[in-house]
Structure formats: structure tokens, C-alpha cells
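tool_log.txt
---
The assistant was asked to compare two proteins side by side. It first ran the structure predictor on the initial sequence, then on the second. Raw inputs and outputs are pasted verbatim so the downstream comparison step can read them without reformatting.
(1)
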Amino acid sequence: MTPVEWAIVALAALGAFFSGVAAIGIIRLPDVYTRAHAASKSDTLGAVLTIAAAALALETGLSTAKAVFLLVFMFLTNPTAAHAVARAAKDQGIEPWTTENDQ
């Protein structure tokens, strides 16, 4: 395998790992605020790493340019969407989870 192929495999594996962490975080975390954090951080990183692997696999051309634009779009929109969800939850009066809620 060439170094580029190793990089593609590594990026895809890391992307799958972070996407899996995000999925577990969304399922396991107790409230909307912590779930939004898991979705905005881990899911964005997982998706971006996976798209970067695809961009490397495509080498050069229009498809690679589209993948790069998609990377930038995801970096801008995923955290913004998570912030909008958290702000809407706050506006609705949803209280954050605390250790006192667990008792």
C-alpha cells in the first residue's frame, strides 16, 4: 500500500471512530445540552475526517473540490446548528441536568 492509501484508511477509520463516539454520546448523555455537545463536536469531526478520506481517494478534479467545499460547509454549519438547538432549549426553559437531578 502507498502512503496515500494508508492515509485514506487512517482518516476513514478515525472518522468512523468519532462518528461512533458521537452516536454513543447522543444515546447515553442525559439532557439536550450534553447531547448537542456530543453531536456538534464528535459528529463534525467524524464526518469531516471521513470526507477528507474520500477527497484523498478521489485524487484531483471536480469531485475533490466538491468534497473540500463540503468540509468547509460542515465545519460552519454543524456547530451552528448545535448552538441553535441549545439556545432553543434554553428559550423553552429546559433546565440543564445536574447531579441533584440524579437523586
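(2)
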Amino acid sequence: MLEMPQQSPGAAPWTKLDEKVKRVWRWGAFIGPLFFLVPGLGIAFAIERKRDLPVPLTFLVVGAYVLIAIISFVLVDKKFDAWRYRITEEDIATRSGIFWRNKRYVGRHRVQHVDVTAGPIQRALGLAEIKVYVAGGEAASIPGLTEHEAERIRQTLLRQDKVPPVAPAPPLPPQGL
């Protein structure tokens, strides 16, 4: 049974991803393993040409692809149910994972820039992904957002309401020779 994230009174609620992200992940369940299928078939054909094997390796390679794709396809609903995000004045929090739980909290004061990305399948479905960067690199990402929601979150994260404006630097004294 999947545990629901607990929240303290007065805390912002955890938000689910858009349902359309399941379609993106289902496509990924079949497309992702193809990158292993094609080289695997090439290696299997090369080995089969050199040796007479009782079971063709190509059957094993295709069988492994089908098994991985089916398992990935079946786990999409569980992955969707496990994914949540929350944005507060203090931090960005994400929660994901079926077997290994991953909770990530990034202080909003650390955010340096935010990317909004969308692959071809995401664009076709009107979805996007937010990637949040801090000084050390990518700190968090939130997939499965509508394009409008992704842009709204980007603007919210980059808003510097609490940071006072920087005063212009005083002019440098003239440098003599």
C-alpha cells in the first residue's frame, strides 16, 4: 500500500502531476529499452554467425526487451501515484519512488536558474518539465506539468521579492601611472 505524504498543519499541500504524464512514461517504457535492443540484436547476430547455439540469442534479446518494457509499462501507475511536489516560501520539495523513496528539499534562496523543457511527446500532450539549478548543478526536477503550470512555477521560483535591491557600486578611484 502506498503511503500518502504527511504534512504539518498550515503547510502547503503536496501536488500531484498531470495525468497526461502517464502517457509520456508509457511511451518511454517502450522507447527507452530500444537503445539496448538494437545493439543487443547486433551482438546476438554476430555471435550466432560464429557458433551453432541451441537457442538463438536473438530470441533471448527480444524476450528481455519485451519483459523490461512490460514491467516498465505496468509500473507507470505506481510511479505516478508516488510522485508529488510542493513549493513553499522556503523550499521546493519533491517526493518520488516506488521501491526506493526519494525526498528532495531545495531552499528557494539557493535557486540560481530554472529551465522549462519538453520533449516531442511532452510537447504533443501540452506538458513540460521544470529543472531547478543551484550552484552545484541540477538540484530538483518536476515532470508532468502543464505548460502553463510550468511557466507559473518558473516565475514563482525566480521571483526575488525578499531580496533587497542592490545599490550601485561606488565609482572606482582614478588609477595613476
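---
observation on (2): The chain has a mean pLDDT of 85. The first strand starts at residue 84 and ends at 87.
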